[in-house]
Amino acid sequence: MRKYNIYYYIILIIISFITPNMLHSSETAAKNKPNVIFIYASDFGKGLISAYGQKHFSTPNIDYLINNGVSFSNAYGGARSAPARASLLTGYNGCKKDKWRISGGGVYIREDTLYIHQNEDFINEYDILLPENEYYLPQVFRRAGYVTAQTGVLGMGNTSTRRQMERYGWDYYYGYLDQVRAEGYYPPFLFESGQIVMIKGNTRTDAGRGYEPENDAAYKYRWDMKGKKTCAPDLIMDKTLEFIRFFKDWPFFLLFDTQLLRGPVSIPQIDPEIASNDNLSQVEKEYASMVKLLDKQVGIILSEIKKLGLEENTIIVFSSDCGHEIHYNQQNKFDRPYKNLQTGEKFDNSYFKYYSDLAGDVFNGNMGLAGLKRSNLEGGIQTPLVFYGKGRWKKYVCNDVVAAYDFIATMADMLNVKQETKKDGISLLPLLLKNKKLPKRRHVIIASDEGPALISNEGWKLRYVRSHSRYELYNLRKDPQEKYDVIRRFPEKAKELESILLKECNGNLDNGIYY
Fold first, then answer.
1. 30 pLDDT exceeds 60?
2. What is the distance between the alpha carbons of residues 480 and 491, in angstroms, rounded to a whole number?
3. CA dihedral sign of residues 340, 342, 345, 350
């Protein structure tokens, strides 16, 4: 008999008291309520996907989802990881800072496990929680009778707590509660449903986190495996599969929030497809192998649901928290602060914008768009987004402007869960069903280190550039690379969008994203 984690049995006991009517109808429930697996990558630009033009390696499993599902060409996440997750889990745009507090990161790297409770108490004391009638994402699923789980990068602050995980509505979780610590791939401990789980053989206090400037010392540190016995993505994948197998006869929602592609670069081995690519440097091969590992894990999940007979009753969503980011530096090639390799000018992302060809990014992960993660330019905030459900939706590409904070409304609509409070997101279910009768939209709001931005469904984009205290206006349909600021040509349109942006941001465009 397979030995499952004791937490799963506890979950079943709790659910049996909360929803006793489900016990005699789990088969019927499974047919009427599809499982939902949300695969959520980190810092994963669309240009890294071979279906979108990546030439240095292939991503066959992500390509499969895109080639057989509903993909969105204008999907927006966040400019940073923690606020992006807060937006996804609450259904509010990144300017609604009264809906959450972004705590500082790296706490569980600096401190011994003995201090975890003390640090959690401090975070909990100053935490901002939604009222009981404003559901977090997992609570929407729980109200529909689902079992909920999150594996990988947990919570929605740079450091989260176990009390928060319970409050958000997770029945089970396994992974990191510190997003900075998640940049190390060999943690001495992880969290599992309230417990601190020690990982034998992983003894690096910093979880094996390397550093980005590429030199001989960095290379040596990355490949020194002393105290780095087990790679976290493998542990997280095992727990993810264990959850799916245990609840295969029960409707479940799983947020597989992988730490891949967080940096600095770390990978236990170079992927065979990458090894012989002479066009890539050593660190570029390692970074590309991280992409390949993520794609393989997508394939493992696909294979598992097929093997369990769940494919026709499972929706798989693939996306990323932010736009593209490069987690390594190469002197005289791709070196921070990023600069134009031809002129030596540093990019300020206003007068001198970052573009892959100017900076030396061989992967062009932002597909030629301007900017990277942290920026409100398109390359920093556009993300891949695809919904796959065998026999549920036909393949097509949707060009409507959508945001990660639409996901709660979409799932609530699909599961007939009434949200008592109006949020910023809207249901994308009409788009998935391809009848395209979407409520008039409006716009998407994204916060960033550089300032907030508004993108309208008509293709207009107004971005505030905090460093220069000014607005820029772009017509993305004619100028997706944001090369031509047309605010002087269309001052009335800029004023119209400015009033909306100010209202969404409570009149304050200068306070940035707090950490």
1. no
2. 20
3. negative
